[in-house]
Amino acid sequence: MADTGMDKIVSLAKRRGFIYAGSEIYGGLSGTWDYGPLGVELKNNIKNLWWRMFVQDRDDMCGLDAAILMNPRAWEASGHVSGFSDPLVECKKCKRRFRADQIGDLSTPLGARKCPECGGAFGEVREFNMMFKTQTGATEDASSVTYLRPETAGGIFVNFKNIVDSFHPKLPFGIAQIGKAFRNEIAPRDFIFRSREFEQMEIEYFVRSGEWEKSFEEWRKNVHVFNEAVGIPASAVHELEVPDGERAHYSKRTIDFEFDFPFGRKELYGLAYRGDFDLKAHSDVSGVPLKMIDEEGQEPIMPHVVEPSFGVDRTVLAVLASAYTEDELGGEARTYLKFNAAVAPIKAAVFPLLKNKPELVAKAREVYTMLKKFVPQIMWDDNGNIGKRYRRQDEIGTPYCITIDFDTLGEKPELKDTVTVRDRDTGQQERVAIAELLSKLAV
Ligand SMILES: [Zn+2]
Which of 266, 272, 235, 232 lies closest to 49 in space, CA to CA? Predict the structure, then answer.
């Protein structure tokens, strides 16, 4: 992580309680990260917005929360047991292991490449399965082997029949799930971009086989609508058509949505047409035909699938990178997070002008309690002077700071029951009636 832009984001995220290294007091655990008080709010806001937009606001979507542990035959059916692997090489001298496609100049044969740590030569490339293996129950033999799911999609396919039987949906319809997934990455890197434990937001959208292109285009647009809603600028997102030969054999079309991360242009989301590959594979291995009746009186059919797949942590990182801003305000350099109000972990902070004036504190508490009833993500702050509080709130991306002063109490009668509201981006303050605050926050 040599890039300074990235260093600054990682440092702010730790200092202000967004994201910490996992198990830090024990020296960490590579590829794991812990979300702190502000990080969990930011992440929940992103997930809630996604759920609202793609599940609750639509009438063609069902939500799901399937178990992380699944019958291992599901991962045989999906091809993960035999094929979900990365090429691994080991240095013959220092025994360190690397992903073969991440070391040295890829145009040079592996035999001519040297270990980046010690200059030693590499042994043969072997395939390393990235699924975390574990056991269910007290016996430790082949029959008890299970895996932590490497993606959430599997849980959706194995519940296809349940949902069809409960809800009798008509095509096209989708099933959406948000949840943890685990991959034993050989080389976790770039902060929360590539970690071993992460969260996904996935949709399997079931369509008639001849109609996938229309749904594909709709989801392609939806990806951009979601980006805009969370504050990822369109100018930083690039569609990459995955060419023939690089797509999975069953996919007729795949688009990677790439984002300009501080460490380079990398995949943020994926959109793939998967045909009937998954339903067919799970039907074959389970022996349960995963079909549905599309039109009364007709034979059951196996729908095809369009799959938009979103990484939660990558979205958090893209939102942080997009929001990170350095400017000058009132002649002083400042750093702030220009979050959209929809994702900001704190929507507004409430201050009494002075913390040693009981009447100011009491009035500020009253305003704080009233707002918090409707907008839970409100923060109380009475620490240090007003200037310092503003800077602290700017740094965590709070759109508005609300100050209760002597005019609020009626020192100037015409200003009684008004407060100052200070805008994060402009630093401008305006006088707003307490009764108007909720509509001002507009969340
Ligand atoms: Zn070595």
Answer: 232
| Ligand 1 centroid, distance to 97 Cα (angstroms) | 8
Contact by Cβ (8 Å): 291, 300: yes
The percentage of residues in the chain with a pLDDT greater than 90, rounded to a whole number, is: 85
Ligand 1 centroid – CA 31 distance (Å): 21
Domain with CATH 3.30.930.10 in the chain: 6-71+150-320
CA distance 431 to 434: 9
The answer to whether residues 337 and 298 touch, using CB atoms and an 8 Å cutoff, is no
Distance 364 CA to ligand 1 centre (A): 61
CATH code that applies to domain 346-441: 3.40.50.800
Radius of gyration of the chain (CA): 26
What's the CA gap between 171 and 303, in Å, rounded?
A: 8
List residues bridging with 204 in a β-sheet. Answer: 175
User: The pTM is what?
Assistant: 0.94
Q: Separation of 110 CA from ligand 1 center, angstroms? A: 14
Residues 443, 345 contacting (CB under 8 angstroms): no
CB 398 within 8 A of CB 379: yes
SS3 397: coil
Average pLDDT over residues 416-440: 97
Whole-number Å distance, alpha carbon 183 to ligand 1 midpoint, is 24
Inter-residue contact 302 to 291 (CB < 8 Å): yes
Which CATH number applies to 6-71+150-320? 3.30.930.10
Using the predicted structure, report yes or no on whether residue 61 has a pLDDT greater than 70. yes
Ligand 1 midpoint to CA 114 (Å): 8
DSSP one-letter string for 141-191: SGGGEEEE-S-SHHHHHHTHHHHHHHH---SSEEEEEEEEEE---SS-BTT
Q: What is the pLDDT of residues 194-212, one digit of tens each?
A: 999 999 999 999 999 999 9
Q: Residues near 386 by Cβ (< 8 Å), separated by ≥ 6?
A: 351, 353, 403
In the chain, which segments carry CATH 3.40.50.800? 346-441
User: How many angstroms separate the Cα of 288 from the Cα of each of 70, 82, 158, 170?
Assistant: 16, 22, 10, 20
Pairing assessment for the beta strands 19-21 and 33-35 based on DSSP bridges? antiparallel
